Amino acid sequence: MTLLEIKGMNTYYGESHIIRDVDMSVKSGEMVCLIGRNGVGKTTLLKTLIGLLKPKSGEILFDGNSINRTAPHNRAKSGIAYVPQGREIIPYLTVEENLKLGMEALQGGLVKNKKIDTFIYELFPILKTFLNRKGGDLSGGQQQQLAIGRALLGQPKLLLLDEPTEGIQPNIVKDIESAVRRIINERGIGVLLVEQHLHFVRQADKYYAMQRGGIVASGPTKDLSKSVIENFLNV
Amino acid sequence: MQLIVESLFNGIAIGSVLLVAALGLAIVFGLMGVINLAHGELMMIGAYSTYVTQLIFKLPAFQQFYNSYIIVSLGVAFLVSAVVGIVLESLIIKRLYGNPLETLLATWGVSLILQQFVRSVPLAYGTGLIISLIIGLGLPIILPKNLFVSHQSKFFRLGIWSISVVFGLLTANGLSSAISKLGRSSSRNVDVTAPSWMRGGIEFWDITFPVTRLVIIVITIISVIAVSWFLNRSIWGMRIRAVTQNRSMSECLGISTKKVDILTFAIGSGLAGVAGVAVSLLGSVGPNVGANYIVGCFMVVVLGGVGNLLGTIIASFGIGIMTDLIGAGRLLEIWPEMPSSIASTVNFFATTSMARVLVFALIVVFLQFKPAGLFPQKGRMVEG
Ligand SMILES: Nc1ncnc2c1ncn2[C@@H]1O[C@H](COP(=O)(O)OP(=O)(O)O)[C@@H](O)[C@H]1O
Ligand SMILES: [Mg+2]
Prior knowledge:
The structure holds two protein chains of two kinds. Helices cover 34% and strands 27% of the residues of chain A. By secondary structure, chain A is α/β, with parallel strands linked by helices. In chain A, the strands form two sheets. A six-stranded mixed beta sheet of chain A has the order 6-7-8-3-9-10, sandwiched between helices. A four-stranded antiparallel beta sheet of chain A has the order 2-1-4-5, covered by helices on one side. In chain A, a hairpin with a 2-residue loop joins strand 1 and strand 2. The longest helix of chain A is centred in the C-terminal third of the chain and has 18 residues. The radius of gyration of chain A is 17 Å and the shape is globular. The two termini of chain A are 34 Å apart. In chain B, helix 2 packs across helix 12 and helix 8 packs across helix 9. Chain B has one domain: ABC transporter involved in vitamin B12 uptake, BtuC (Orthogonal Bundle), CATH 1.10.3470. Chain B has a two-stranded antiparallel ribbon with strand order 1-2. Chain B has 17 helices and two strands. Chain B is globular and about 80 Å long. The C terminus of chain B is likely disordered. Bound molecules: adenosine-5'-diphosphate and magnesium ion (MG). Adenosine-5'-diphosphate binds next to helix 1 of chain A.
């Protein structure tokens, strides 16, 4: 089932045209990877999907409904979770409070949901030991796990991940990869991943390659050729 | 010794007022980066609400409860100032978000308008207006939500606002005929008289502590505890803290930042109202009463640091005590045999306004050495 469908989307920062006529789709249970060099517009695309930026034209369909006019907090409530580049942990809130904020996206928000689902500690055991620390005091890798855990606690249907392994120790990269894989298998959610790390890219089912804001290549990840990789990843 | 304790006590009472008002200011500033120059006028509105509440409690129907009017007026002042704050936020500040300079000018304009409003509009009509706003804004929250999604929602809204206008007019007319003082506009100061149990003082070690000031201190303690409980323990408090620290991410997590903005503004403004109750107990109430405190509030926020409760407390008591020591000429009373050269200087500053000038000059000098205030935020998060 098609979960997310983007049709002819164009996004601008003021006068500068960033996203150009992008068509894209993500199915439930599918991991889709968006690749492209720095500055081509991958982050801009994800920001448009969560609603931080407004597209100038085109349509975003989520679960069959147009969400172009939906505010970000309502997109979150309808089942889109966003793990931004740079993680954006709320720095002076504790790890526990940060995790709870993820539950705002659930039906009834924090008023109706009070207990943190413990599966999150199975995925990322480190979070349980640091529950009372301030989010801003964690290391980069720990913050990334927190950001993903926080997103998953909202039980999203679609997870947007922006460079989750950027600047993170290799052993944590592995944990993150397997956590994402496991969630897709167990919950059947769709994932749109922006990634530079080849090993992680290879885990995806499908890829889209972006150049100067437009999609220039796409297909199953197993067909990803050496030349495409050299062209679109910063390796 | 006696003099010193008395002086400290007075300073703490003045500092208490500053503290409550500055808490409200800091909450709003921390969240939206908005410097609300109309904060003093929200205090003024709180003070006038106390005055109106007091007059209503003098009516025969309520006379028997007269002694408790001050407790009722705390709630009334919070509500009234909060409502005015909500209107201010949704009509003006929301539109200027991200433009600090324009916000500054606009809120300054609002402060002048509010001052002129209480000068030229009879308090009865002001009260009527507030009643209309409370009903108009409150009914949609109380009534079931599905009334407003139906195709008749426009008529519902219209109906609600008509009801609230009618109620407002009834209140205004009722008040102005029942209490003639409220029916006329006046720019003269009014006086809130404390109920009998608050007059006089309590004696301790030969020192008399005026009860009004004790009450002010108690109000402050309760407000500080309530605010810190709300911010640190409640769900809305957590939402406010999250939005304060990272607005766009909070929105992406499913928090309605618009609602948080309105609520925060309401609470910040409501605290100004509570401070207004205290102000009305310290002296007479006039259109400028808020303007007298606003600079002090800003100084407290700058000195104590935004989002730093301990800093805010120390800064407000420090400023309160210093203003009282210098302004009331207490230094001379405490130390009568001081050399005449110093004594004349002390005398020169021994008026309320000169004392303020001196205290602010001292703060400016202090900030030269510690630009981040008394307690700069430390740690990885600030550096990174
Ligand atoms: N806030 C902004 N204002 C203006 N231009 C921006 C802003 N953020 C990013 N850009 C520009 O948009 C382009 C795409 O950026 P981005 O989406 O962050 O790229 P990527 O994530 O693919 O590295 C870049 O050329 C960048 O300079
Ligand atoms: Mg990026």
